Amino acid sequence: MRKFTFSLKMGVIMPLFIVFTAFSAAGLLEEQSIYIQKKLLEHYDADQEILKIKKTELNVTNTGFCRYKRHFENGKVEYFSFNLIKFKDLDYVGTVKSGRLIIRTLGEDVIVQTYNDKKGDIDSMAAAVSIPLKQVEAEDLNDFAEKFQQMHQDLKK
Fold it and tell me: Domain-by-domain residue ranges, the chain?
């Protein structure tokens, strides 16, 4: 009888443990993606662009997808997308006042799509995404690197 009771307890406790563990990992990814997106939008600098930008969309999902879309005043649209599971490292080129965050992937893992361009609609792949930022301190860069790396590691699990 004791063996049966023990087996019954383990049969109930183990699935509950697995469910709680799964939700905590999903919650952590959600938290990291929201934080990264908030910080990128907070420091985004549209004034660095050569062509005037009418609208920008920048989001990071809890499944690890980073999407960056620029709508230019001349009608051209550029769309960049990659998954953080392919994240390699990042660099910052510029000063505290303004610069570009370059997010690199393991290979050519960034989808690049261009619409309404004079050269036509173009689909290609790239190894990096460059995002213009402003008012970026060293702590912000360290924070970006840490959060991107954490999310990359959590997605690999």
Answer: 2-156
Rg (CA), the chain: 21
Report the C-alpha gap between 53 and 113 in whole angstroms. Answer: 16
Amino acid identity at 75: G
3 state SS of 155: helix
Question: What does the block give as tokens for 6?
Answer: 């023990």
Quote the crossing angle between the two packed helices 138-156 and 2-43, to the nearest 10°: 140
Quote the pTM value: 0.78
- At residue 103, the pLDDT reads 95
How far is 147 from 55, CA to CA, in rounded Å?
A: 26
CA angle 127, 128, 134 (to 5 degrees): 175
